[in-house]
Write a structure and sequence with these properties.
Pfam families: Ribonuc_P_40. This is Ribonuclease P protein subunit p40-like. InterPro entries: RNase_P_Rpp40. It comes from Polistes dominula (European paper wasp). Helices cover 24% and strands 32% of the residues. The protein is of the alpha+beta class. Strands 7-8-6-5-4-9-3-10 form an eight-stranded antiparallel β-sheet. Strands 1-15-14-13-2-12-11 form a seven-stranded antiparallel β-sheet, with helices on both faces. The longest helix has 17 residues, at 283-299. It is elongated and about 65 Å long.
């Protein structure tokens, strides 16, 4: 066994990308459109006596998702399934209950890419082409297989399709609990059709709903938005501290929160509203939330600012687009959007889960 001195890892790097956008433009930021597996959505609204229904409804209305228990991955190659739910509308699927750095995982992106992330032994059993993990190419403990379910060549009877099907049915029987969302291409189609399809094939299907955490704080000092705040980490640190203020987990956290001082410049406001929804949100849902919050902020003359934070699943195989993700560094794949009253918004994107460990 290697001695601890050989594996002398440096602390993980925390890297954030910050950009400024015109709030009045209706173009949806790419950072939202390319982030598929969203787990937590939270809002902070200072100087708000109430949170309007239009904002909460954009998060909670028709936001059900489904859990399929013990799903055989080979089922995802079914032509009927691909034609009905992958090629039409947007399907987002993610394995749950697995640790991405220690075990196998799967996901389907809205663009129709099936991602199979495998530990080395199972990858060799599967016998399909795949790339060594970005995070451990030197020692090669994990490989990632990507299959475009929508490709013209991926059809029953064609060589590529039959090879993948044979591998998943005969060489490696992968089984996962998964959650999924299907957004139909037509409002006349029911999103629950995908759940009915799996139920008819004998799977245990559960309806899942988002969980809400809400609180209101009175007489709170909040940071003021200034022209230079977009590069000020203190502002975003305050957002994080306020988010955990009502959910203190231990004495160490409690002491830190209770002694934390709001960065300057700041102002005292009568109320600050905070709400957090936890569950599974598709990119389409995130886009809807962004558009609704943006329009709300533009309509409020006296609102100092509003923050929208979206946190991805810590154990998803990818974070943004098809960029591989790891939990081992810290698992953070999130973004925060700060809307301010002068028609600007700042987007802060965490890239730390895409960084390799550094060896001292």
């Amino acid at each position: 066994m290697l001695s601890p001195e050989v594996w002398n890892f440096k602390p993980p790097q925390h890297y954030f990308n910050v950009e400024k956008l015109d709030n009045k433009k209706k173009d949806v930021p790419v950072i939202i459109k390319k982030h598929y597996f969203n787990h937590v959505v939270s809002l902070i609204l200072p100087q708000s006596s109430n949170i309007p229904d239009i904002v909460t409804n954009s998060i909670s209305d028709d936001s059900d998702y489904y859990k399929i228990k013990d799903l055989h991955v080979s089922e995802l190659l079914n032509k009927q399934f691909i034609d009905a739910f992958v090629k039409k509308g947007e399907l987002t699927l993610l394995a749950i209950g697995n640790k991405i750095d220690l075990s196998n995982a799967i996901a389907i992106t809205p663009s129709g890419i099936l991602i199979i992330s495998l530990i080395r032994e199972d990858f060799y059993k599967l016998g399909l082409e795949g790339n060594a993990s970005f995070f451990d190419r030197k020692i090669n403990t994990r490989n990632v297989v990507e299959i475009d379910l929508t490709a013209e060549y991926f059809q029953p009877g064609k060589k590529n399709y039959e090879r993948v099907k044979t591998a998943l049915e005969n060489y490696l029987d992968l089984i996962f609990d998964v959650i999924l969302i299907w957004e139909p291409p037509d409002e006349n189609l029911c999103p629950s059709s995908v759940a009915a399809w799996f139920h008819q094939r004998g799977y245990s299907v559960s309806l899942c709903r988002q969980k809400l955490s809400y609180r209101s704080e009175n007489r709170v000092n909040i940071p003021i938005v200034t022209d230079s705040f977009n590069l000020n980490d203190d502002f975003f640190e305050w957002l994080g501290v306020f988010s955990i203020f009502g959910d203190i987990k231990n004495e160490e956290t409690s002491e830190y929160v209770n002694t934390y001082e709001c960065p300057k410049p700041n102002i005292l406001v009568d109320q600050v509203k905070y709400l957090q929804y936890t569950g599974f949100f598709s990119r389409q849902r995130a886009i809807k939330i962004y558009n609704t919050v943006r329009e709300y902020v533009l309509s409020q003359k006296n609102l100092p600012w509003c923050s929208l934070h979206v946190q991805g699943f810590s154990d998803s195989p990818v974070s943004w687009d098809l960029k591989e993700h790891t939990f081992f560094t810290d698992g953070d794949n999130s973004y925060t959007i700060l809307f301010n009253p002068n028609a600007e918004c700042i987007i802060r994107k965490s890239l730390s889960s895409n960084n390799k460990l550094r060896i001292a």
